Hints:
Radius of gyration: 31 Å
Number of helices: 7
Number of domains: 3
Strand content: 35-45%
Distance between the termini: 79 Å
Structural class: alpha+beta
Bound molecules: zinc ion
Largest sheet: 12 strands, mixed
Helix content: 10-25%
Number of strands: 15
Amino acid sequence: MSDFEQVRPTPFSCPACGGRMVFDPASQRLKCPYCGALKPFQAERETPNEYDIRFAPPLEDQAWDDQTRVARCESCKAEFVLTGETVLKTCPYCGSAAMAEEQSGPGIAPENLIPFQLTRKQAQEKFGQWLKGHIFVSRAVKKEAVRDSIAGVYQPRWTYVDDAESKYMGRTGRHYDLKIPYTVTDRDGKERTETRTEQGTRWETVSGQINERLENVMTEGSDRIPGELFDAVQPYHMSRLTRYVPEYIAGFACEKPNVDVQENWKKAQGIVDRRMAALAEREILALADEAQVQSVQTSHYDVRYKLTLLPIYLCTFMYRKKPRHVLINGQTGRVSGYAPISPLRVGAAVLIVLLLLGGLVWRFLATGGSEYMFNDLGGRLRMLL
Ligand SMILES: [Zn+2]
Ligand SMILES: [Zn+2]
């Protein structure tokens, strides 16, 4: 055996220097971090596969492919799927450096994704702008922005396709003019009757059926980021959904789902039910002036699922011993997150305002007379400032 291990070129090898290339959001190609060479790759044209929900395997059961590895955080137990070349030094969720190679498989492979469009540098700029807009944010967060801790993580989402059939009952309301008589007394004390017109509604019972094929019903594949935080960086432009190829995740981490696909279908049904109720209301409204939906019974047929990845940049910092997150949409740059307010900073601002007011009162007393004060308020303020 030779002392020098032969390095086998892979699809990720740089053609110029042999370095490991990563996905570059700016050019949407592979880029060599050492020499800057770019290499295009073929995005597949075929449509993603969808699988029957009745036969969905447990999370561990399916192998993604042999090019991927799983890294696990010993601290918060988050698991990440990486391409063979990518290394994760710290956990994007809790900042711990206790990352270990996991023996379990990477699980169900993604079928489609929205590629990162924002570079890490652009994400840092967006984060910086967001911090500037929050003047009372604690220094701990501001430091984190400088400390270079933003990581690009693809978020797993279970996407369902459903042939939904809804039977609904409701009421149609048609408007009509209602003549209401009323009595007026004129100047001579004579009474007479006049009528005014009000709007009345005539209600009738109605029922019907709607059949709709719903695509892209999305629910979370991981519960590590609170749903409301993730919602706050929506929407994604779904027209950019593209077939998964491994090049898109080179240099990034994908969180391995920790929410079961069958379990989450119950949640997705709730989303479908709400959409169908809205469609029923629209259908009733098309017949009349007002609509009341009384009941909607929805049956689900031919339910299929696939794993979709959405790009997020994560900035994690510890505050009061808990990891807190600021999220940056990896496609649009929308920022949202936990912004701990520093009592010191708020206190300082209150003190400045009090000092200014104190100065104003002192000036008022020194010059005397409220009339003068209010006439010359602008001038007083200018003097103080
Ligand atoms: Zn290179
Ligand atoms: Zn962790």
